[in-house]
Amino acid sequence: MASSLTKDSASPGTPGSGYEQTFFGHPRGLATLFMTEMWERFSYYGMRALLPLYLVAPGGLHMSATTATAIYSVYLSLVYLLALPGGWFADRVLGPRKTVAVAGLVIMLGHLTLALPSSGTFFAGLGLVAIGSGLLKANISTMVGHLYKGPDDPRRDGGFTVFYIGINLGAFAAPLVIGTVGEKVNWHLGFALAALGMALGLAQFLMGRRHLDARSDVVPTPMSAEEKSSTLRKGLLWLAVAAVFYAAVGLSGHYTLNWIMVPLALIGLIIPVWVIARIKRDKSLDQVEQSRMSAYIWFFVAAAVFWMIYDQGGSTLSIFAESSAENSVFGWTFPVSWYQSVNPVMIMALAPVFAWAWLALNRAGREPSTIVKFASGLVLVGASFFLFLAPLSIAEGGHKAAALWLVAIYFVQTVGELALSPVGLSVTTKMAPAKYASQMMGVWFLAVTAGDATTALLSIAGVDLNGMGIVALEATLAVVAGAAIFMYRNKVKSLMGNVN
Questions:
Q1: What is the DSSP string of 365-423?
Q2: What pLDDT score does 142 carry?
Q3: Are 201 and 43 in contact (CB under 8 A)?
Q4: Element at 63 (helix H, strand E)
Q5: What is the CATH number of the domain that holds 61?
Q6: Which residue among 40, 260, 394, 490 is the one 20 to 30 A from 191 at the CA level?
Q7: Where is this region: Disordered (predicted)?
Q8: Angle in degrees, 0-180, between the axes of helices 119-146 and 96-114, rounded to the nearest 10
Q9: Residues facing residue 497 across a β-bridge
């Protein structure tokens, strides 16, 4: 990636120098975070593309489709759930930069554990990757926000869009490399390649950390020695209680995967509600911050519905493709995991268009508000599942659905994602109360937790998510939610105050 030197006497990180090294017009630190996220996403999405296929494959764990979807959804829910304590850990213990470095190491070890040919170590590896991803996700996005001069910096939304391209570069390459090796050569060798990707990401982050804003090294509200000791004691106590409980269940012969999946899925629904309520009840927030939090609840609910449907692209749609789609183009057959590269390549093609369009509309005074963008994203993700009804109908007729049906579904979801996700990241940093700086990015990811936890509970209950009735119901829910948000856009806008 090329960089250039531009004059900017007020740039963060270069006080008094008069010059700032930039990355396509953005602070140079964006390149470091861009590359770190690209390699981390390469490892994460490569493993994610293999996960449901490995779970159902005869040469893998050979589970049913509903069980595989439940495990996949619980895993995703846990990844995003752990972003909240990841933000707290940075706020209270290490600061964002050091937390991200630790996270990269844990993720790499998790992928190496997945590479071991054992079902026991496989689930331990999933746990390590989830913990590391939780530590990294909230903090790396927060550090992107640190690079800009506050909420009114006109480059801010564009910076998050560029960052989003880095995510999707890694996500695009991962299924093509890791997916192919995993499906065609050896599942565990594919997981080992994911570990290599994270190792590369960690190395370049450590080399480029000098370009980050000084705020990324700050621990905003450091814990006292007494608080650290008390927190450690409580954590070990709860860990011991869980260990004793599950040991008792296992020794009694009653243990099944649902003893783990059901509690985690329920936690994924309960904790987001509890966290939002706790922040909203915080008396130390001033009137402006309280009002913004009221507005933020609308965005949160919208995002939860969106991700509930969107994330099924890696489970419901992937499992459907494995069993019921003609995975070939012009007679050339490709691995099922390659479908997971469709969305990121479309993101890379369309994200610059969206970034340019938002800026052009802003200059003309016609840029849609954040709430309108969110409503559009919901309607589009609902439309994608209405479109899914066509290949489902073809499969029910005993035929294989053409690959282009799935490509069309991913295209509609991609347009919806670009209307909602980068804007959601940006508005979270703008509306976050100062007291909850890094933690608010974790709250944003809890919307994904809630959506995936809902999918997990449906799968655990035995609901066929490839059934036409449930697909139509989910599609209708998203469209109705989008329409409702649009109708109340003026009310939400008034709660947001001067945040656009």
A1: T-PPPHHHHHHHHHHHHHHHHHHHHHHHHHHHTT-PEEHHHHHHHHHHHHHHHHHHHHH
A2: 81
A3: yes
A4: none
A5: 1.20.1250.20
A6: 260
A7: 1-20
A8: 160
A9: none
> How many other CB atoms are there within 10 angstroms of residue 452's CB atom?
29
What residues contact residue 473 under an 8 Å CB cut-off, 6+ apart? none
What confidence score (pLDDT) does residue 348 get?
Answer: 84
Q: Give the model confidence (pLDDT) of 367-420 as tens digits.
A: 888 888 989 999 999 999 999 999 999 999 889 999 999 999 999 999 999 999
**Nearest-CA neighbor of 43 among 132, 203, 182, 174?**
174
Going by their DSSP bridges, the two strands 19-23 and 4-7 should be labelled as antiparallel
Residues 6+ positions from 161 with CB-CB distance below 8 Å: 351, 352, 354, 355, 422
Residue 29 has pLDDT above 90, yes or no: no
Cα pseudo-dihedral 148, 150, 151, 157, rounded to 10: 0
Residue 323 lies inside a defined structural domain of this protein: yes
Is residue 2, in this structure, part of any structural domain at all? Answer: no
Query: pTM for this structure?
Result: 0.86
pLDDT of residue 8: 40
Host domain of residue 267: 21-222+256-496
249: its two tokens: 């269940």
**How many domains does the chain contain in total?**
1
Please report whether residue 79 resides in a domain: yes
Task: Provide the residue type at 282 as one letter.
Answer: D
Closest to 180 in 3D by CA, of 411, 348, 340: 340
Instruction: Determine, yes or no, domain membership for 5.
Output: no
- Positive or negative: CA dihedral 178, 184, 187, 193: negative
Give residue 137's Cα distance to chain centre.
Answer: 8
The predicted-structure confidence for 204-253, as pLDDT tens digits, reads as follows: 899 888 888 788 888 888 898 888 899 899 989 999 999 999 899 888 88
Residue 278 backbone dihedrals phi, psi, to 5 degrees: -65, -45
Residue 158 to residue 351: CA distance in whole angstroms: 10
pLDDT at 220: 85
Greatest alpha-carbon span in the chain: 70
- Secondary structure percentages of the chain, helix, strand, coil, to 5: 75, 5, 20
